[in-house]
Specification:
The protein has 295 residues and is α+β, with helices and mostly antiparallel strands. It has two domains: 19-68 and 153-295, 2-Layer Sandwich (D-amino Acid Aminotransferase, Chain A, domain 1); 71-149, no CATH class. It contains nine helices and twelve strands. The strands form three sheets. The chain has a six-stranded antiparallel beta sheet. α3 packs across α9 (260-267).
Length: 295
């Protein structure tokens, strides 16, 4: 289809197919539109250290403390450096330089290690930038990290993904059974739900308001401070909050929102023409990754 329509027209076609409304790059209003505008107009390569799943741990440690990090078992440049015999029975393997390149291991005895080795080596040879064209991934070095396996009493691990603009969390969506029969619910920062309007194949289970919602929001404020926009992904299980990742172009702008009103709600405060990404380095100096201003 892309070779028939051309890249620009294909983008418009697939955007409308996914979101149900046309892509307006001249006057973007929804978050999804603004993500595409940012990708097209802003230099995102300097964000790489915050996207790398290993290097970001240092940033998180400095901003909010070690206690919010999922315990790390090891980081490896090559699969063959991993001593499987020394690993615990359950763990999670992640490629540091991509999105969705994860392997959940509930029992290492049941793992096809030959197939797993081939998959991980394929990831390590790949540049995630070539998959979707998100420049923030272009300069990342491929590595594998292994972390402790987290689970909540339901047997799953809910993923709380907070949309933050100028250091303030606007709301979130909660992923449920992300690697299985995936569903989600969307809330504002006060835990008022955006009720779905599309017919659901499966009704998402209720997600109670977390007892530590105030702490979740404060963690988001600290991690998102200095960035025009970032999605802060957290885990919350048995009263503990864990950092997941930072995402600056979530879903590559192609993740649908139901209801679509939430897409516009999360996008409304973001002024893309004043987009800036900043961070504190170890010397506590402020660096601007990119400022894009137009009249």
């Amino acid at each position: 289809m892309q070779h028939v329509l051309g890249r620009k027209n294909y983008l418009k076609w697939i955007f409308r197919k996914v979101h149900g409304y046309p892509l307006d790059m001249e006057n973007p209003r929804s978050l999804s539109e603004k993500i595409h505008w940012i990708k097209a107009n802003c230099e995102l390569e300097p964000l790489a250290p915050f996207i790398d799943k290993y290097s970001v741990k240092g940033f998180v440690r400095e901003r909010i403390g070690e206690q919010y990090l999922v315990p790390l078992i090891g980081v490896y440049d090559r699969f063959d450096d991993i001593d499987i015999d020394l690993l615990p029975r359950r763990f999670v393997m992640k490629a540091t330089h991509g999105c969705g390149w994860n392997i959940l291991v509930k029992d290492k005895i049941c793992v096809d290690w030959k197939g797993t080795r081939a998959k991980i080596n394929r990831w390590l040879r790949s540049n995630y930038y070539d998959v979707h064209g998100e420049t923030c991934y272009r300069n990342l070095k491929g590595r594998i990290i292994i972390e402790e396996y987290l689970e909540d009493p339901s047997g799953f691990l809910k993923d709380y993904k907070f949309y933050c603009c100028n250091g303030e969390p606007l709301g979130l969506h909660v992923d449920i059974d992300r690697f299985g029969d995936h569903t989600y619910r969307i809330y504002d920062a006060e835990w008022n739900e955006f009720v779905k309007k599309k017919r659901c194949r499966k009704i998402p289970p209720d997600v109670p308001k977390p007892d530590k919602l105030d702490e979740l929001l404060e963690v988001c404020r600290k991690l998102s401070n200095g960035f025009s926009f970032v999605r802060v992904d957290l885990y919350y299980t048995e009263g503990r909050i864990y950092f997941g990742e930072l995402t600056f172009t979530p879903g590559n702008g192609m993740a649908s929102f139901d209801p679509v009103e939430s897409d516009y709600y999360f996008g409304a405060p973001l002024d893309v023409r004043q987009y800036i990404a900043v961070h504190k380095c170890e010397q506590n100096e402020i660096y601007k990754c990119q400022t894009h201003t137009t009249a």
